[in-house]
Amino acid sequence: MSGGRKAIPMLGHKFGCLTVISESCTSTTKCKSWVVECEKCGAQKVAFGRNLRRVSENGTQGCLCEGHPSKIHGLWDHEAYKTWNGMMDRCYKPNHQAYHRYGGRGITVCSSWHYVPEFITWLMDAGWVKGMQIDRIDNDGDYCPNNCRVVTPSVNANNKSSNRTLTVGGERMTISQASVRFGVNKTTIKERLNRGWSDRDAVRKP
């Protein structure tokens, strides 16, 4: 394009100890990211092009995979990074305000999602756009592909166990309490309520 900035070739190029081997599946037209391989440790990671060029400009020769994975995945300014960071903080930081409802009661994040590009790839495939949130289908289950979906903030707020109560036979109870009382799976009760079922039908119908 006339007057535009010329694209910088990346495939096969070396930046410090890193060699670019392919374009990342999380790459966008505005923010290119690349799969790189470290010649020192053999690890393959994802990095933004601008961060790789900084490696070259700064003359860095050490292995960037050691100790500071955020320096190599380069996704801290991705729109979905805050979603990943919030999920990890809730599960693994005891000083987080919501830790007692997540990590404090045993909720964890599956090992593959500890690697930011893996999580963001799943999130995008699930239909995430800026402003959406991640929701666990089973409130007592972990963060993993089989137990998560992306929803709007209003849907997520309605699905929180702390906000969901129902009244059956004049008695008010939480979904968890109703599940034990009537022998119906909590997820089933929640999904029925989301579809507009009455409180009684949500726990009484087979």
Q: What does this protein structure show overall?
A:
It is a single chain. This protein is α+β, with helices and mostly antiparallel strands and 206 residues long. It has 3 domains: 14-73; 81-159, no CATH class; 164-204, no CATH class. It has helices at 49-58, 70-73, 81-92, 116-125, 153-159, 175-182, 186-194, 199-204, and strands at 14-15, 18-23, 33-38, 44-48, 133-136, 148-151, 165-168, 171-174. The strands form 3 sheets. It has a 4-stranded antiparallel β-sheet. A two-stranded antiparallel ribbon has the order 5-6. Strand 7 and strand 8 (171-174) form a beta hairpin. It is elongated, with a radius of gyration of 22 Å.
Shape: elongated
Helical coverage, percent range: 25-40%
Mean pLDDT comes to 77
How many E-type strands? 8
Number of domains: 3
What count of helical segments does DSSP give? 8
Low-pLDDT windows of residues: 64-72
Strand content: 15-25%
Order of strands in the sheet with the most strands?
1-2-3-4
Our Rg estimate from Cα atoms comes to 22 Å
- Give a short account of the largest sheet: 4 strands, antiparallel
Order of SSEs, N→C?
EEEEHHHHEEHEEHHH
